[in-house]
Design goal:
The protein has about 325 residues and is α/β, with parallel strands linked by helices.
């Protein structure tokens, strides 16, 4: 169709936090034939079962395939079999701290799997890709807010692997364009994603080891409130921020996946779109703790400890470009 509308969409990492919310938004929107791929190394089968239940109740098709995205030939066969028109590539490991300890996992599950996916899409004739990138590709910038013009100089293997995946996608789009073959891509640099479906139908299902060791602030805070973790360890108390704790740009998962839905119609020909997706306002770790205490009505004990290697003091975006260009 001329307006860029697609029907058959494949979502990688669909048992994970953000991708499952995206799949749910497609189900809610209606008119999409959704294929979810996940190897369940980190995502939860319960999330998939919940998605299937919700899709069935809405009378919408949702198909699940348990598969590692890096398995190029099996992915190509699946793309053909499902007549996929657009891929939204969310899957990959996503803990900065873990990437400092196990960099090889990050280059494998982000860079290598993205290259394998491009090859699978090429052989199956799928010509549209939306890629989950990260503000970690910018490293520790000296000027704020971060815009699309900010130089990308990652300070940890997670950011480096995401940047390499972006570079592979950009080179692939340019190569197809020179050949006169349609292939378009959008790169979205996420800031800190929080929250869950406002109707309470799904949420982050974080039972794997990495989340115990390298949790995100809000998840760790809930664990403390629920008694699953003795206290919150705040990494860094002497940053040059308003209260000494690290400042980050937090974006609600539903707002984030809405940007992806809007972008699907914008991809055509050999377009290459790239956007920073955040709310544009930094909040410190200590401010987030106060919000969790207010919302839960319970005290949140915490201790201050050393900052983690590779962690910048502040990161926040200016989302003006995506607002102006796609009306997000």
């Amino acid at each position: 169709p001329r307006d860029g509308r697609v029907t058959n969409v494949l979502v990688t990492g669909g048992a994970g936090f953000i991708a499952s919310h995206f799949a749910l938004m497609l189900v809610d929107s209606g008119g999409f034939n959704v294929t979810v791929v996940d190897d369940l190394s980190r995502g939860s089968i319960h999330t998939i079962l919940r998605l299937q239940e919700l899709a069935k109740a809405a009378g919408q098709p949702l198909h699940f395939a348990q598969l590692d995205v890096a398995r190029q030939f099996e992915m190509a066969a699946l793309l053909r079999e499902r007549a996929v028109e657009l891929v939204v590539h969310f899957s990959g490991n996503a803990y900065v701290g873990e990437s400092m300890v196990r960099p090889e996992d990050y280059f494998q599950n982000i860079t290598v799997s993205t290259v394998a996916l491009l090859r699978a899409m090429g052989s199956a004739g799928v010509s549209k890709l939306i890629f989950s990138s990260s503000c970690a590709t910018f490293g520790s910038p000296t000027q704020f807010p971060i815009t699309e013009q900010t130089p990308q100089r990652p300070t940890n293997p997670y950011g480096a692997a995401k940047l390499q995946a972006e570079q592979a996608i950009i080179a692939y789009v340019k190569a197809r364009k020179r050949e006169g073959v349609a292939f378009s891509a959008a790169l979205l640099r996420y800031f800190n994603v929080v929250g869950a479906d406002p109707r309470g139908r799904i949420g982050p299902h974080l039972r794997h080891e990495a989340n115990k060791l390298y949790p995100r602030i809000v998840d760790a805070a809930y664990d403390v409130v629920l008694g699953l973790r003795p206290e919150l360890r705040v990494m860094g108390s002497s940053y040059p921020t308003k209260d000494g704790s690290a400042a980050r740009d937090y974006i609600h998962v539903t707002d984030l996946v809405d940007a992806h839905v809007k972008l699907m119609a914008a991809l055509r020909g050999n377009s290459l779109l790239y956007y920073n997706v955040g709310n544009g306002m930094p909040y410190t770790v200590l401010e987030i703790i106060k919000v969790v205490e207010r919302v839960t009505g319970r005290p949140l004990p915490f201790t201050l400890s050393q900052e983690r290697p590779g962690d910048p003091p502040a990161l926040y975006s200016d989302p003006a470009k995506i607002k102006a260009e796609i009306g997000w």
